[in-house]
Structures are given as structure tokens and as C-alpha cells.
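Suppose you are handed a protein chain with no further information: no name, no annotation, nothing but its sequence. What can you learn? This example shows the usual starting point.
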Amino acid sequence: MTPRNELQPGTEAFRRANWALILGGFACFTLLYGTQPILPQFTEAFGISPTMASLAVSAGTLTLSVLLIPLSLLSDRFGRAPLMKAALLGATFFAALSALAPDFEWLIFSRAGVGACIAALPAAAMAYLGEEITPEARGRVMGMYIAGNALGGMFGRFLSALVTQFSSWHYGLAALAVVGVICTALFWRMLPPAQHFRSRSMAPSALWQDIVRIYKDPGLPWLFTTAFLIMGAFVSIYNYLGFRLSAAPYDLGPAAIGAVFLLYAVGSASSALAGHLVDRHGRSLIMRGMIAAMALGVLATLDSHLVIIIAGLALFTFGYFATHAIASGWVGARAGERRGLVSALYLSSYYLGSSFLGSTSGPLWTHFAWPGMVVGLMLCVSLVFGIALYLAKIERQTH
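A reasonable first move is to predict its three-dimensional structure. Written in C-alpha cells, the prediction is:
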């Protein structure tokens, strides 16, 4: 046993915590991104443009990115577990409301509600992991948590698309809410009580000092920027590839487009693999390799053959989830005492990239078709590679 009695691998409490965090991440991504493969159905149902339809994804990620920081402060003050439980309950409620939407305004309001509730979970989960899990197992649990995110994103997109194919988008979104109910019930039952949480001050002066310290760190602001760029690129490629594949010469239906999101399974594998590779070869080297994989994947989607397009998307997805896992672990290593706030700043940048770049990249598709989208994606990936080189320099200087 460690002096602080952190949760140890092989114990019942460790297994319960690990599975609860996986289910929490799974539920978040299922509920948040389940609208993505049925964006073409929203354009038809409401008579709106693809860029406007993308708000069905961006509304949730925007409220999430805005509320992550204030809710992380509540997590630092009042505890991780209560906020995470309330987050899943509220998100499931708003997901059910979105299935009943009679118009686009209702849909956007309810999707924003989903994001607002989910905002309480990711930073609290990362902080809970850092406080309750023994240090030698944190990388493994973080990898599994992100793998849960990937599986949730894959399952939610596939489920909503499949149900929509054979009924309507209302039933597709209702299916997501049912999954939310199941995951919420299991999460409430399985999550062990926090043993090492210590309430932190919300006094403005103490908070300001912490923020200044965080942004003076030579690595953290660049890791936040990395989160913004990789998530923006990731959401953009999946948002608009659906429109490309639903048009001639591919003419894929909702279920076939939803099946594309099964590639998230590749991301689950890569996020777990990245943790092991980092332990052997260091963060910076593996991160650069994974960013290079993202770039090659983007370029492959320029081909007109469907098989090559899907292979390129798989390679991009593999690199993306591994990069995210590495960056998340790097943030945790540099976070210091204010874990909740640092995690929230990283994740806020992450979801802000999803909202901002996921929608503003729309004109690239509208005016320049897929080649224009590839240019925008390559710009994001190239900037991240440059950041990785800088982070490698910092790492060499501190060792």
C-alpha cells in the first residue's frame, strides 16, 4: 500500500473506479456526438445549410467549453464524485429533450443543455484519476478513459445513424438517451467514494495566482493549443466527410455513413497503445510520430476511391486519439496542485476547438469542396507538429 492509500491495480475498488471512468467517458461522447452522422437529415428536415446543421454538434461542444472552467472550480471546491454524477443525469435529461425537438431552435437548445451538463464531468474525471489512482497506474487508466471516450463516440454515432436509417432522427436521438440512462445508473453504482479530495479555495486572489502560474508554465499553454487544433481538425473531418460521402458518386445512406464511425475502435486501440509507447520512448517522439500519421491520413482522403478514403480516415483517427492521450498525460504531469483547473483549461481548449473549427471550417467545404477542407486540416496538423517540436525542446531542457 502506498502512504496515501491510492487505489491499487488488482483491487475491487480499482476495478470499480476504472470501469466507472470508462463508462463516464463512454456516455459523454455517446450523448455529445450522436448527432454528427445525421447532419444531412437535419438539413433536409429543417431546410438549412450544412454549416447551420453543424450547430447540432457545435452547440453542445461550445457550452461544454465555456462551462468547463467554472464547473471545474466547483469540483475543486465541493468534490469530484457529486459533480460527475449530476453531470450524467442532466445530460441524459437534455438528450431525451432533443429527441422530442419540433424545430431546429429546440434541437439546438437541448443539445446546448447536453454540453452544459457534460461540462462537469471531464475535468473532474481527470482530477479524480490523479487523486485516487496510484501513480504507476494512472497512465494506464487515462488511456482506458480516453478509449472509453473513443468507443462512446463510435457507438453513439453508429447507433443514431442506424436507428435513423430505419425510422427517423427523432428515434435516433431517443436511442442515445436510453444509453445515457443505462450508463448513468451504472456510474452511480460503481464509482468508489473519493478518499483524497481536499477542498480548494475559490477566493479570487488565490484563483488568479493559480491561473498566472499555469500560463507561465512553458509547456501548458502549448498543450492547450494542441488540444484546440487537434480536436478542431478531428470534428471537421468527420462533420464534412459525411456530406461528401452522402453525395455522388458515393451516395451513402445514414447507416453506411454511421458505420464509418466504427473507425473509433482504431482510436481506442491507439490511445491505450500510446501509453505503453510513451513509457518506453518518451512523450515527444511518440507524439510527433502520431501527428505524422494524422497528416498522412488527411492527404489520403484526397483520393477518389472509397476504400482509400476510409483507410486515410482510419490512419488520421489512430494518430488523433494517440496524440490526445499523450497530451492529456503531459498536462497531468505538469499540472501541480490545481489539477481540476488545469484539466479544465486543457479540455476547454479541446472543446472550443471542436465548436469553433468544427463550424468555421464549413465554408472550406461549401466553396472549395474536399481539397479546400484538406488544406485547412493540414494547416492544423502542421501547427501541432511545430508545437510538438517545441515541447520536445522543453523536455530536453528540464532533464
